[in-house]
Amino acid sequence: MKKWVAIFSSALLAGGAAVGVSASDAGKFVSYENTVATNTETVTEKDDNQAKDQITKEEAVKAAQAILGGSVKEVELDREEGKLIYEVELYFNGNDYDFDIDAITGDVLSIDDDLLKTPVKNQMKVNVGEAKREALSLFDKAGIKDVELEMKDGRFVYEIEVKVAGEDGDVYIDATTGEVLYIEEDIRNKAISQGANVDHKERSSQESTNKSDHDSIKITKEQAVKTALNHVGGGTIDEVELDREDGILVYEIEIEQDGQEVEVDVDAATGEIVSVDWD
């Protein structure tokens, strides 16, 4: 399951590509969206001095280690979407964990990498088994491929990769309340078609967002895949998703090539290569 460099927003953002579904019955879906935190810049000394109320690096590390007692590898003060963030990297039991700490409030905003490998999992009110059952209950016939525990937008979330009707997609379950926060677009319609009651207001908002996204898509998934394969010199397609990064819709294409994995992002409007990330 690919790690996200993302901050989840609990409010519905206009123009978002990934929108949750509200329901009054089964699943109790909550509006949710993911927005990728791009346009990140390292804060200069001048910027640093201007933020008089910000916490220190030591305080940011303390906030991270209060959750996971790892050793510090790196601390940076960055600006993400206009917000000052301490990026704290901790090493724990053979894995690196990336924390985003609000440089003003000291709140932990996100933790990247699987916390199921740490004692943090024992603090969750909803255990992994309960989260899996909740995800599976959304579909008629489905299987679990992978589960990770992360923090997004200040809350612990199970990221559960589900396979249903030949499609793979992620379901996000709140690790505190057990609520379904987000269903990935590739499998969302399969859950909705199996009995979830979508209220009119949420459905109208979703339809408006989907129409806006649809109007901006100028190339097909197949064209994007062809572009990506040509760019990296071939390979086997593992996964293709449509997502929004830095305000634009992109096809995220995961390719396996000679034992290596590479993700190619292709602009859904222009067909241009946006980024290439080799693992």
What does this structure look like?
It is a single chain. This protein is of the alpha+beta class and 279 residues long. It folds into two domains: 215 residues, no CATH class; 62 residues, Roll (Nuclear Transport Factor 2, Chain: A), CATH 3.10.450.40. The protein is 22% helix and 39% strand. The two termini are 13 Å apart. The N terminus is likely disordered.
How does the SSE layout of this entry go?
Elements: E1 6-9, E2 33-36, E3 40-42, H1 45-50, H2 57-65, E4 71-80, E5 83-92, E6 95-102, E7 108-112, H3 128-136, E8 143-152, E9 155-164, E10 167-174, E11 180-183, H4 185-192, H5 200-216, H6 221-232, E12 236-245, E13 248-257, E14 260-267, E15 273-278
Antiparallel strand pairs: 1-2, 3-4, 4-5, 5-6, 6-7, 8-9, 9-10, 10-11, 12-13, 13-14, 14-15
Task: Produce a short descriptive summary.
With 279 residues, the protein is of the alpha+beta class. It has six helices and 15 strands.
Taken together, the total number of domains comes to 2
Report helical residue fraction.
10-25%
Straight-line distance between termini: 13 Å
Q: Which range does the strand content fall in?
A: 35-45%
Q: Which class do the helix and strand fractions yield?
A: alpha+beta
Mean pLDDT: 77
Major β-sheet strand ordering: 3-4-5-6-7
- Give the low-pLDDT segments: 1-40, 45-50, 193-209
Total strands: the figure is 15
Largest sheet: 5 strands, antiparallel
Count of helix runs:
6
Global outline: globular
What radius of gyration results from the CA coordinates? Answer: 19 Å
- Write the element-wise H/E pattern from the N-terminal end onward: EEEHHEEEEHEEEEHHHEEEE
Protein name: Peptidase propeptide and YPEB domain protein
Domain PepSY: 55-111, 126-184, 218-276
Keywords: Signal
Pfam family, one: PepSY
